[in-house]
Amino acid sequence: MPLWGSRTAKLHSEDRLLWHGHQVMFNQLTSWMVYGILQDQYSEFFIRRQDDRDGDNDSSQRDFSDKFMHKLAKDTSLASWHTRFLVSLDMLPEYIHMRVAESILFAGKAIRVLRNPSPGATLQEHVSQGQNPKGSHRMQSFTGGSGAPKDLPNFSNISAEELLPLAEADKIDAMLKDLKHSSEFHKRLFESAVGSIRTIAANHLWQLVVVRADLNGHLKALKDYFLLAKGDFFQCFLEESRQLMRLPPRQSTAEADLMIPFQLAALKTIGEEDKYFTRVSLRMLSYGMKSSTSQKDLQKPNASELPSQGKAASELALDGWDNIALEYSVDWPLQLFFTPDVLSKYRKVFQYLIRLKRTQMELEKSWAAVMHKDHADFSDYCKDRKNGSATQLRRQRSKPLWRVREHMAFLIRNLQFYIQVDVIESQWNVLQSHVQDSHDFTELVSFHQEYLSALVSQSFLDIGSVSRILDSIMKLCLQFCWSIEQYETRPNISEIDHITEEFNKKSNSLYTILRSSRLAGSQRAPFLRQFLMRLNFNSFFETTARGVMNSGRLRPSTAGAQL
């Protein structure tokens, strides 16, 4: 036989061997992408089962993730989606691109979910009935009697064929059979078929999560509660819990103590038509740990006012209330979308926003209380001008305090407005346009991740230097409010002067960082400029932050002269 003839025979033999290998692969692909079953007895397929699970969760969300993993253990379709399967690079043929392999992985996982409906699996339990105050029939009416929210989708009777019609499964099977029966492996046709199958799976998963499970309703609920869109509810909650939060949280009962004002606020502001509120629960995260700020750095209550919990309670700082967080109960199939990482980001933004709103409210309350006192003093002065010199002196002495308060309120008010309007509302509108236009589940997941990343980034939560300064400013504002409330009975000029000086320093540092060239050149520059424009629209903030307008800072010598 001629040499070229032997080479041709050898090539034909190799092609034939490759063809037989592809037959095995297409059988595995059919099992995986049509039925959602991994048929790989000898570990030859490039999609493999992952037996080990990561445990690299940080302490702030470990309990949350543990509950989630417990749900995974009971829910096979949910476990399959999040942890069970991956692409094995060692077994992946070199002519199949990683992007294509990931599409195959996604399609198979989606088919498993669609063919194995798992109703009843919840990520967090609803608030237990025992936590409701006695007689709160209104709270019980938020649920449909059995503890499940009213008017929400019921998947108890749903069938796999409803989620993935037989005609669609046959279509996927036919595409794979055409590839299998071909005499040669055509890379372009293979990638095209995988893309089409992935689109079919993604569209049906979108139909399940977005339409059947009312994804947009849950997104709106998360915005209402985690992003404080229901401002009246949180205003009422903070007012109801204001006296409680003036004392350090009690280690054993802090969460239960907060539940009463939380539910009272719900009774006053949440309508029965809000079918999502029962999914929201209040928590104190990482409770029992000492705060980074010692109690003597904050305004101390009287020893008699401390809770009778002994030394452990007194060691906790007043800003231990910063550990307030929300949890949201998520049912199947929304756990595919709202993962522990996603809910952790919502929780992080919530904790920031509730601290900001609490600070803003305290500044407003302090102003209202002193204005009430000032009007009473002015009324007394008008009635008895001869003996009104003490009243006039007290009013004159208080003016510098209110300049400082106004500077604080100006910064906090503009930061709050910037985050709620320029960041949250604008990003929400972008997300809504994507939800309306997209019919692909993976696209929607990506858009939602961009939405959360934008919230964190544009609120400066990912810039350690800025977020630390803002936290310090909020604490200084609270200290100032608590100090001036006792100003009439116990003038503490040096303490207020120290708070004012620290506030001016922090404000100056904040302005310097926001104007820095490093941040000006980053991708968040447009949002920084927007925030700076709000703060400095008439150069007021710049002059104040740079210490030009120091009339609001009480110097010990000036204070002494006034006294």
Search tags:
563 residues, two-stranded antiparallel sheet, 4 strands, 62% helix, disordered N terminus, cytoskeleton, GCP_C_sf
Structural commentary:
- The chain has 563 residues and is mostly helical.
- Helices cover 62% and strands 3% of the residues.
- The chain has 21 helices and 4 strands.
- The chain has helices spanning 3-35, 62-74, 76-84, 98-115, 137-140, 160-163, 166-181, 187-212, 215-226, 231-240, 254-269, 311-314, 340-383, 389-437, 441-458, 464-485, 493-514, 517-520, 525-535, 540-545, 556-562; strands at 47-49, 85-87, 280-284, 324-328.
- Strands 1-2 form a two-stranded antiparallel ribbon. It has a two-stranded antiparallel ribbon with strand order 3-4.
- Helix 13 (340-383) packs parallel to helix 15 and helix 14 packs antiparallel against helix 19.
- The longest helix is centred in the last third of the chain and has 49 residues, at 389-437.
- The chain is elongated.
- It starts with a helix and ends with a helix.
- It holds the Pfam family GCP_N_terminal.
- It comes from Panicum virgatum.
- Keywords: Cytoplasm, Cytoskeleton, Microtubule.
* Helical run tally: 21
- Structural Rg: 31 Å
Largest sheet: 2 strands, antiparallel
Structural class: mainly alpha
In the sheet with the most strands, the strands line up as 1-2
Q: Which oligomerization state do the chains in this entry correspond to?
A: single chain
The CA-CA distance between the termini, in Å, is 118 Å
Q: Please count the beta strands (DSSP E, at least 2 residues each).
A: 4
- The sequence of SSEs as H and E is HEHHEHHHHHHHHEHEHHHHHHHHH
Taking all residues together, what is the mean pLDDT? 75
Beta-strand level of the residues, as a percent range?
under 5%
User: What is the helix content?
Assistant: 55-70%
- Global geometry: elongated
Low-confidence stretches: 1-11, 52-62, 68-75, 120-150, 287-318, 548-563
